[in-house]
Specification:
The protein has two helices and no strands. The protein has 63 residues and is an all-alpha fold. α1 packs antiparallel against α2. It is elongated, with a radius of gyration of 16 Å.
Length: 63
Amino acid sequence: MRLPNFVYESYPVIYVFAGIIAMSAVQSYLSFLSGLLLAMGGISILFMRRNYRLIKNQLSHLT
């Protein structure tokens, strides 16, 4: 199943915001840890996508 582009691109941003909300909403260590992991996961997805697109763009200029 293929997602529309705007949904696919917005998932990592939603993960980061949900992580920040989870870290600040409830005052417990488990909530903070879960929010931190969610935010870090969203940020890592954003970096992986950016790196892939940079490499793909560089390789397309070589051929």
